[in-house]
Amino acid sequence: MKGLFVTFEGIEGSGKSTQMKMLAAKLEELGKPSLLTREPGGPPIAESIRALLLDPGNKEMLRETELLLYSASRAQHTGQWILPALREGKIVLCDRYYDSTIAYQGAAREQNLDFIAVLTRFSTFNTVPDITFLFDLPVEEGFARIGHRQLDRLEQEDRSFHERVRQQYLLLAKEQPGRFVVLDATLSPMELHKLIINQVLTHRSLK
Ligand code: TMP
Asked: Is the Cβ atom of 155 under 6 angstroms away from ligand 1?
């Protein structure tokens, strides 16, 4: 039995985590348990890498180191959690995956996209999500939603950085319409939930 791998992407404050929780609760109710996880992070080794990546004190981190650490976290997470869960036929819901690397380390930090593609195939064991929900919304609105909480190292980047992230996501979605579902993240949580559950339950892998 093959599972279903669903990823959630978007700029900061796009509301993806809330929607993931709503989806996981609904799937549970329908008797389809899922693994709810996130990147960077997941298993303990990958969570330790997450702490390094997001620590606002790590101001000297080179963009090369950053790219390798996101990839290292992904390799551990994919090999230890995601692939075994998919092999058991589970639905895996992952908050961010390699599209984040293309958008943040590729477009926003201007690192080589061909190299990132090679690194991605290596660190994911060639795993590609079945569905990727892109929560699209204007950068200003995303930051307004975050409010005044303590920002992590990436969130502290300026508006133009996050605008490059947004535009790269939209480009990826345009290039891969079979995998991406672009959502207007300004819709109400219930409207978004309905769109998402419908896409997941009608996916060919669950038939
Ligand atoms: P989160 O705040 O959504 O948990 O994500 C952590 C931060 O890491 C967020 O600012 C996006 C960033 N990120 C990357 O830059 N590259 C990646 O590959 C991933 C997964 C996240």
From this structure: yes
CA of 80 relative to ligand 1 center, distance in Å: 20
Cβ–ligand 1 contact at 10 (below 6 Å): no
Which superfamily is assigned to 4-206 in CATH? P-loop containing nucleotide triphosphate hydrolases (3.40.50.300)
Ligand 1 atom 10, closest CA? 154
The per-residue pLDDT string of the chain (207 residues; one tens digit each, 9 = 90 and over) reads: 579 999 999 998 999 999 999 999 999 999 998 999 999 999 999 999 999 999 999 999 999 999 999 999 999 999 999 999 999 999 999 999 999 999 999 999 999 999 999 999 999 999 999 999 999 999 999 989 988 778 888 888 889 999 999 999 999 999 999 999 999 999 999 999 999 999 999 998 777
In terms of pTM, does the model score above 0.70?
Answer: yes
| Helical axes 189-201 vs 16-29, angle rounded to 10° | 50
